[in-house]
Amino acid sequence: MRKSTIRERSPRVKASFPVRTASGISGLTTDISATGLFFELDEKQELGSVISFSVELDTPGGKLTIVCEGKVVRVEEEAGKVKVATKIMSQSIEA
């Protein structure tokens, strides 16, 4: 008998924030969760690779930058854009 595997997903929030990779490529998030981000870039990414990126947030206290390292868990290509899902491996906040 096959065992059914149920993957628990963190709740997602549709949100558009600027993203910049360590190599300087800019993009936008399409949704975020506590464990990962989904964003669009103009640069192809490899499934399973590790990507360094930052997300800029405009908060009432001023701009914050979240610097992350994430594992690429899904890649989709559509209309010249690359959509990348990442699982966050590490993060820090810079004011």
Keywords:
Thrombin, subunit H, 95 residues
What's the quick description here?
The chain is mainly β and 95 residues long. The protein has no helices and seven strands.
Describe the structure.
- By secondary structure, this protein is mainly β.
- The protein has one domain (13-94): Thrombin, subunit H.
- The chain has no helices and 7 strands.
- It has strands at 13-14, 18-21, 26-32, 36-41, 50-59, 62-78, 81-94.
- The chain has a 6-stranded antiparallel beta barrel.
- Strand 2 (18-21) and strand 3 form a beta hairpin.
- The radius of gyration is 14 Å and the shape is globular.
- The model has no long low-confidence stretch (mean pLDDT 89).
Q: Topology, please?
A:
Elements: E1 13-14, E2 18-21, E3 26-32, E4 36-41, E5 50-59, E6 62-78, E7 81-94
Antiparallel strand pairs: 1-3, 2-3, 2-5, 3-4, 4-7, 5-6, 6-7
Largest sheet, strands/sense/barrel: 6 strands, antiparallel, barrel
Q: Low-confidence stretches at least 5 residues in length (pLDDT < 50)?
A: none
Count of separate structural domains: 1
CATH class descriptor: Mainly Beta
* CATH fold annotation: Thrombin, subunit H
Arithmetic mean of pLDDT: 89
Strand content: over 45%
The CATH architecture name reads Beta Barrel
Tally of DSSP β-strands: 7
How much helicity do the residues have? Answer: under 10%
Radius of gyration using CA atoms only: 14 Å
